[in-house]
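ARCHIVE RECORD
Type: protein–small molecule complex
Small molecule: 2-acetamido-2-deoxy-beta-D-glucopyranose
Source of inputs: curated submission
Record status: active
Notes field left blank by submitter.
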Amino acid sequence: MVELRRQLWVWVFVLCSSAVSAFSSTHVVHIWSMLLFCWTSWYIGALGARVICDNIPGLVNKQRQLCQRHPDIMQAIGEGTKEWIRECQHQFRHHRWNCSTLDRDHTVFGRVLLRSSREAAFVYAISSAGVVYALTRACSQGELKMCNCDPDKRGRTHDTRGEFDWGGCSDNVNYGIKFAKAFIDAKERTVRDARALMNLHNNRCGRTAVKRFMKQECKCHGVSGSCTLRTCWKAMADFRKTGDYLRRKYNGAVEVTMNQDGTGFTVANKAFRKATKNDLVYFENSPDYCLQDKEAGSLGTAGRTCNKTSRGTDGCEVMCCGRGYDTTRVKQITKCECKFKWCCAVECKDCEEAVDIHTCKAPKRAEWLDQT
Ligand SMILES: *[C@@H]1O[C@H](CO)[C@@H](O)[C@H](O)[C@H]1NC(C)=O
Ligand SMILES: *[C@@H]1O[C@H](CO)[C@@H](O)[C@H](O)[C@H]1NC(C)=O
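STRUCTURE (tokenized, with ligand):
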């Protein structure tokens, strides 16, 4: 769908610019017909954006409007979605819940998780972070009409190491945060309930997490790298940093209940510390994710590979929930007997190795359960 939009805009651009050059080369300045032509092409393009924005499932009105006004952001949001899903699956690759409930749902807008669990809190946070990240990057790369490098990072300033000039392109993370907030939070603002408040809170945690990992990069100039002159810029760190941070926040997430007047949260267990604005919050306990339960967002662990020797969450005992596992022997090609050859190559042989793959057994009553 996004591809189609791209093609439409390219088409508008090509037609319009070829019209302009054709008109000017014949020196017949049919300015009005030219304008009419360009306007028509633009209109068809805008219509295209409208059709596309109307066909993305799960957008609320406000999001549709933003999509129509800035059709080029949808590409960036799509990229952001791929990125956060990849990161989420990386963070939970050794766990029963591995973030793959979301595989079919390649939008940040769709129903994410029904249960107000710790996992839902993480998904809302990391998806918001992903959108901030992708939008900010797209701004810096000049892919979007409405934003650019950070306009405030100009001129001369100083830090602990002395004076320097802002140069290059500083990532405009504040813009990314602002737009992601308008776009993603729009959905939660259509309802006023506890879950919406939880989502808004976790969305914010995710957005601000990206900003935490902005780093200043500098280049030295001056006689033989003496660094008498420096130019610096602000850049976002790798998204993995944000993923790792939010993963720690997931571990320390706080179970809360709504407070009496419905404006904020109270920690559910009084023995625990209060939730700060940087903590992820959730309302409901997680299922154990052992069995398939679509309602709870659990796919079950039948068929998952596990590690026979590990005592952690990826160990067969934990992963398979005590149901046991099947072992299959597969052949794996590895590089071996590598030799250094003068000069300068490393030559290896392909060796065949048999490795055991362990996969969790399905629950015994699975067939019976499937039929009901
Ligand atoms: C996650 O788990 C499901 C089943 O529990 C499995 O089908 C899927 O391949 C797993 N995904 C990843 C990325 O490991
Ligand atoms: C399995 O777990 C052990 C112990 O934690 C670890 O040393 C090993 O690398 C793991 N194997 C695989 C294939 O991940």
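CURATOR ANNOTATION: Residues 2-293 form one domain.
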